[in-house]
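Subject: Protein entry, chain in single-letter code together with its fold tokens

Category: Structural biology, sequence-to-fold work with a learned token vocabulary.

Notation: Tokens come from a learned vocabulary of local backbone shapes, not from coordinates.

Start of record: The labelled sequence and token lines come straight after this line.
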Amino acid sequence: MVEYCVLNPQNSGEGYGVQIVRSVFDITFNRGAVEELCRRCNEAQLDPVHFDDVLEDFLSEQL
């Protein structure tokens, strides 16, 4: 699922923008593993364009 939202500049002197939110469901039943995946992605400031590759690697590790 993908959702596009308007970003409000909130008086920062910047113009409006777009935030893209993508949800991926049913990855695993292991919550801790998904939390670790999210932590690593956030820590690395992973560009969303690379997420599918990271997810593929993550899933191969879960087997």
Observations:
- Helices lie at 31-43, 51-62.
